Structures are given as structure tokens and as C-alpha cells.
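TASK: fixed-backbone design
INPUT:
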């Protein structure tokens, strides 16, 4: 499985993952990919939170929907960048 992931078909779209890529190229290439995956995950979480709010119209569920809506906006606008994660 790992061999398939690290094959030429992956490198076409993720050249930053090549074994010979510099650390800086890998870092610069990774963040757009991570942002996209994070944004998609937040959208999934928002769908689940809206369904929970429909089932149980509680303040906690409403607050979760609002927080996730804000995160969808932030992640969609790309407000998270690699400087946000220097300590990670």
C-alpha cells in the first residue's frame, strides 16, 4: 500500500512528496494539501452537527454548528498557514 502511495502517480500531483524534494519544497507543498483536507473534514463535521441540531435543538448543538460554520469560512479562506503550526 505504501509503495502505491509513493509511486509516480502520486508524484504527478504531489511533487513535494518526492524523496529528492527539499525540506522547504515539502513544507510548501504540504500546507495547501493539508488545508484542503482540513476544509473537507470541517464541512463533514458541519453536516453532522446540523443533523444533530435537527434531532436535538439544544444550545450546545447550536453553538457547535455556529463554531463549525466559522471554521468553514476560515478554512475556506485559507486563514491557517504554516506559521500557525510552527510549534506543532
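OUTPUT:
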Amino acid at each position: 500500500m505504501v509503495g502505491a502511495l509513493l509511486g509516480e502517480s502520486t508524484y504527478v500531483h504531489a511533487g513535494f512528496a518526492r524523496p529528492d524534494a527539499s525540506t522547504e519544497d515539502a513544507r510548501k507543498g504540504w500546507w495547501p494539501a493539508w488545508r484542503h483536507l482540513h476544509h473537507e473534514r470541517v464541512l463533514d463535521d458541519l453536516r453532522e452537527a446540523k443533523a444533530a441540531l435537527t434531532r436535538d435543538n439544544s444550545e450546545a448543538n447550536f453553538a457547535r454548528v455556529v463554531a463549525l460554520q466559522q471554521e468553514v469560512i476560515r478554512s475556506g479562506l485559507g486563514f491557517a498557514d504554516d506559521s500557525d503550526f510552527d510549534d506543532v
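COMMENT: The chain has a mean pLDDT of 84.
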